[in-house]
Design goal:
- By secondary structure, this protein is mostly helical.
- It contains four helices and no strands.
- The longest helix is centred in the C-terminal third of the chain and has 15 residues.
- The two termini are about 20 Å apart.
- The mean pLDDT is about 95.
- This is Group-specific protein.
- It comes from Guptibacillus hwajinpoensis.
C-alpha cells in the first residue's frame, strides 16, 4: 500500500468496514469491529482504511495479504 497524506476519521474507517464487510471473512469483520472499540492512533486508522479500500475489487491473493495485515493490526 502506498502512503496517503489524508487522515481518515474513525467514521470513515467504520463506514469503509461496513461497505466491505460482505466481502470479508465474518470472523475478521467481528475482530475489526472489536478493534475499533479501542482508542486507535491516527496512523492505525489510516492504515486500516487503506487495507479496506477497494477490498471487494482485490484478487484472492491480495485479499489474503490484506486479511493477514488486518489480523496483525488487530492483535496489537
Amino acid at each position: 500500500m502506498g502512503k496517503c497524506t489524508i487522515d481518515h476519521s474513525y467514521g470513515d474507517v467504520l463506514a469503509k468496514l461496513e461497505d466491505q464487510s460482505d466481502f470479508m471473512p465474518d470472523a475478521l469483520v467481528q475482530r475489526t469491529y472489536k478493534f475499533l472499540q479501542q482508542t486507535i492512533s491516527q496512523e492505525a486508522l489510516n492504515e486500516l482504511f487503506h487495507l479496506l479500500k477497494k477490498y471487494d475489487l482485490a484478487t484472492d491473493s491480495e485479499r489474503e495479504k490484506r486479511n493477514q495485515e488486518i489480523e496483525n493490526m488487530t492483535d496489537r
